[in-house]
Amino acid sequence: MVGAKRALKPQQVWAIRFWLDSHRRMRDRAMFDLAIDSKLRGCDIVRMRISDLVSGGRIRLRATVTQKKTGRPVQFELLEAARASLQAWLERRGGTLEDYVFPSRTNHEEHIGTRQYARLVDEWVEGIGLRREDYGTHSLRRTKASIIYKATGNLRAVQLLLGHTKIESTVRYLGVDVEDALTLAERTEI
């Protein structure tokens, strides 16, 4: 399949969370929740260190990560579900602040690879009956951004949250079209 992968809908996010919990996939649940809340690319998710998420023995409410692709920092909020799953995973995982949050199975000094992350995302979406061809790691990055845009119509906020330098990139990224603009206009009365 060529083209952008779909964002998940809120009910699909909850279905994946339920599927991961029912299969006792604690690490994967933490990874999924982090991906949804952070809106980061897969390469940034897998490179995160414990110190990026933990301060004073607790999961941060907000974190900042420098994106690999752009070299620019992006800040994100970690909601309760993500904080709880990350706390549970890190308590089981152990390690120091300088360790990767999601270590490689074969070499704990390294992080899991982006290809392994992509295979996991394929498993998660197939686990709830979705076609893996329609979704990918970038679907997780798009999910919260598209939900925020649909709820608020605020492109500038989504631009900041994704770390885009140009609003045009955000428009293309979200697939905003004339129909979206007209729908927003219809909701606004003067």
TrEMBL record:
Pfam families: Phage_integrase. The keyword Cell inner membrane does not apply. One of its GO terms (biological process) is DNA recombination. InterPro entries: DNA_brk_join_enz, Integrase-like_cat_sf, Integrase_catalytic, Tyrosine_recombinase_XerCD. Keywords: DNA integration, DNA recombination. Gene3D superfamilies: Intergrase catalytic core. Residues 3-186 form the Tyr recombinase domain. This is Tyrosine-type recombinase/integrase.
